[in-house]
Amino acid sequence: MKSKKGFAIGLDMDGVIIDNTDTKIRFAKRMGFTLKPEQTHAELIEKALTPEVLSELRTHLYFNPVTALQAKLVPGSLDGLHQLKKSGQRFYLISKRKYPIIARELLKKHKLWGKYFDEKNAFFVRETEEKDYHIGRLGIGLYLDDQPSTLDKLVNAKHKILFDRFNCFVKSKHRRVGSWEEFIKMVKEHGVVNF
Ligand SMILES: [Mg+2]
User: Fold this and answer.
1) From the CA of 94, how far away is ligand 1's center (Å)?
2) 14 catalytic, yes or no?
3) Against a cut of 0.90, is the pTM above it?
4) What's the CA-to-centroid distance between 16 and ligand 1, angstroms?
5) CATH code of domain 8-19+73-194
6) Which residue positions are annotated as catalytic (predicted)?
7) What's the sign of the alpha-carbon dihedral 160, 163, 168, 171?
8) What are the pLDDT tens digits along the chain (195 aa)?
9) Is 12 in the active site?
10) Domain ranges across the chain
């Protein structure tokens, strides 16, 4: 895996590492809505739920420790992080979370905190513009995020990759990967610098 000094990979958390799909489907069902996995995407879910239900869901997902800590890992993310670390690739987590205590607890629960992430390479921000600030500051050459609208706003990342595991955005202008396996393969084949 090519990794020139100064270049790093930036990773979003929700929808890339942390998987809230089942929690969203279960909560929606209790409220009388049936969601398919692809409808749970952060940019599509508002089409499927009422604003009131969505607001309550977000509270449960990000502020209620009981519900929030039920989130799983995105398939392949653990192995992907292992491969990045093993290769010596510098990587960072930059997540938009208003309540980072729960986010850290979630990473601890899944044994990622301390092994792959810590205070030095994990940053929790309130606005997308702050993501971009860290991307510039940390010398991140490639950023992986599951939201096209977020990637659109990042001007400091040279390479922006859309993590699109449910094939929601086939017409996106951003380069897409459907899985962690595909992402790692892409990084290995082309390196962060040269693709
Ligand atoms: Mg996300």
Assistant:
1) 10
2) yes
3) yes
4) 6
5) 3.40.50.1000
6) 12, 14
7) positive
8) 444 454 799 999 999 999 999 999 999 999 999 999 999 999 999 999 999 999 999 999 989 999 999 999 999 999 999 999 999 899 999 999 989 999 999 999 999 999 999 999 999 999 999 999 999 999 999 999 999 999 999 999 999 999 999 999 999 999 999 999 999 999 988 765 444
9) yes
10) 8-19+73-194, 21-68
